[in-house]
Design brief:
This protein has 75 residues and is mainly α. Helices cover 81% and strands 0% of the residues. It has a domain at 26-74.
Length: 75
């Protein structure tokens, strides 16, 4: 049995691949919470919630896209 120091353990590799799912969920949720706080401060419900949720979703999708492209170039 040989050990290759350049490859990551299976659990680490699986956790890295699944991080995109967390990013897609947590990005918009956290940004929506920021929007909720701003809406309460400025009394503009639901303006900032919608804007920040869309911003969080777009940011997460773009981040995952570029991470995927970088991974494909490395393979």
């Amino acid at each position: 049995m040989t050990t290759d120091s350049s490859s990551s353990p299976p659990l680490t590799s699986a956790a890295t691949r699944s991080s995109g799912a967390y990013e897609l969920v947590l990005g918009p949720v956290l940004m929506a919470l920021v929007g909720l706080v701003l809406d309460n401060i400025f009394n503009t419900t639901p303006l900032f919630i919608l804007l920040f949720t869309a911003w969080g979703a777009a940011g997460a999708a773009i981040s995952i896209y570029y991470r995927y492209r970088r991974h494909m170039e490395d393979v």
